[in-house]
Amino acid sequence: MDRLTAAKVFIDVATTESFTTTAERLEMSRSMVTRYIATMEEWMKTRLLQRTTRKVALTTAGQQCLKEIKLWVEQAEHIAVALQPADRLSGHIRLTTSMSFAHAQLAKAIQPFLVLNPEVSVEIDVRDQVTDLIAERFDLAIRIAMAPDPSLIGKPIAGCDSVMVASPAYLERSPDIRAPSDLSHHQCLGNRSFEQHVWHLTKNNVTESVEVSCRFISNEATVLKAAAIEGAGVAMQPRYLVDEDIQAGRLAVVLKDWMPKSMSVYALYPSREYLLPAVRGLIDHLTQYFDGKRW
């Protein structure tokens, strides 16, 4: 069997500690994972993994050779990258981003890239929690933050402003909102990704922090937007997600002069070394596609 693939399977099992999970992640049968591990152990002339009914764990020999096997796989991939034609991109890109950004912006931004590069495929994994790119085998992450993860290489590709919104129906039946302190008397929609339901708002270099009451909470911005449109309360939303709803009259801006903290959209990747040309090409495309954009 292919020793390079066997090595990649071994590395993944060492990470997941599960043949079943690795089979799902690498899109192969569990029996095929078992065969690849057997190939590795036959090649190394020693047992690399201990199997029990509950868990798979590295043996002492497995721990000793894991680092070298990872290095060998990286070198093999580096050679493959170096041999690719410079004028033609190819390969499969795995990236992760939030549901809201994937739905509102990223899906349409990637289409021109795929048209121009027919030998490239892109897989988008949607999740809002922080992801270990190396352990999860992602090539790229598109994340919105005030500062990127210092352990990753981060390239800003767009600006991201947020705004407070509510449906016209909610605002019509509720007390006026004239100052940030008024928000404490309203139903606000909470994002579980924030540690506390405190909104920090700035106007003319003056910042106010308001503790808001949230009976409707979600970890996903598109859910909060849908609830706001239905009249559930006031939501803090990224402009890239709600600008169309504001223009269509489904949502209205609250406290227009008071702005939540601005953030940036970053393309994040683990290392400049061994970065596939297709991944670098996608980053360059997104940078150009979003050039000058600030929602």
Automatic annotation (TrEMBL):
A biological-process GO annotation: DNA-templated transcription
A single MF term (Gene Ontology): sequence-specific DNA binding
Signal peptide: which range, if any?
Answer: none
Q: Which InterPro entries match?
A: LysR-type_TF_proteobact-type, LysR_HTH_N, LysR_subst-bd, WH-like_DNA-bd_sf, WH_DNA-bd_sf
SUPFAM superfamilies membership:
Periplasmic binding protein-like II, Winged helix' DNA-binding domain
Look up the domain of life of the source.
Answer: Bacteria
Q: Does the keyword Nucleotide-binding apply?
A: no
Family to which the UniProt record says this protein belongs: Belongs to the LysR transcriptional regulatory family.
Q: What is this protein called?
A: LysR family transcriptional regulator
